[in-house]
Write a structure and sequence with these properties.
Blueprint (H helix, E strand, L loop, with lengths): L1 E6 L6 H14 L3 E4 L4 H4 L15 E6 L1 H11 L6 E5 L9 E2 L3 H10 L3 E5 L2 E5 L5 E4 L2 E6 L6 E7 L2 E8 L1 E6 L6 H4 L11 E7 L9 E4 L3 E6 L7 E5 L3 E5 L4 E6 L4 E5 L5 H9 L10
Parallel strand pairs: 1-2, 1-3, 3-4, 4-5
Antiparallel strand pairs: 6-19, 7-8, 7-18, 9-12, 9-16, 10-11, 10-15, 12-13, 13-14, 15-18, 16-17
Amino acid sequence: MTIGVVGNPEYAGLDEVLEEVRQLAAERGAAVVVSEELDDLDGTSERPLEERWDEVDVVLTLGGDGTLLRGARMAGPRRIPLVGCNLGRLGFLTTGALEELEGIVDRTIRGDYELEERVALDVRVGRGEGSFYALNDAVVHKTGFARLMTMRLYLDGEEVGQYSGDGIVISTATGSTAYSLSAGGPIMHPSMDALLATPICPHTLAVRPLVVPGDSRLTVEVVSESEEETVVTVDGQVGSRMERGERVELKAAEEPFRLVRFAGDDFFNVLRQKLRWGDVRPRDA
């Protein structure tokens, strides 16, 4: 087995974690190849992960949810399973923490896990700049001053309505616990085959989050003209500029995201632990 490693080099001590991953993998007869941004920390002269996808059986991310989302854009379209080790604060999507690293590597190599297939987004901007693969969401919003922007939402080519506000979040069920949740959207079980459109601070009480079937095609058109730049941001990390009259089309990606989960990784358990879901008991001092 070959494990591809994607990490956030800003984490202190990541070089030591990488060395531990290599040692744990070698003891179990597996190889490790790291992504380009980890070359300086890794200290080997091997070709990077980006040139060796055909050799990789699973991707391990070392960092927080942002690192996992970046790894998902790399591994997801290639149908390569991904497992995340949390080095950050929240780690909502990751499988375990740093102190569980040995168990994560061991169980992954032994195949002692389940694969969850999650709906991902295929995001295409009207200028034909190619597509983005998103696990969580795509957000159409403005930069600059806090002024209203106007958009028009379409479902399978038919107009849903005009939205005025700070923007709109189009998310997967997985992404329902991310930006969409902060904007007042519902929590969706990650196994749901559905998409979610959540307006950001809408300038009317009549506009509410909208859940649509997973095989739908959503289109957001920029209606307002403003001096501020309008952009679409994908998973909070990459994106593209948009002009008035331009559209971004969003639908389920052809390749779902494959997330490694171990026994006991229950979604509602994660909600309780990470988001204090349903917890009205006094917290320990």
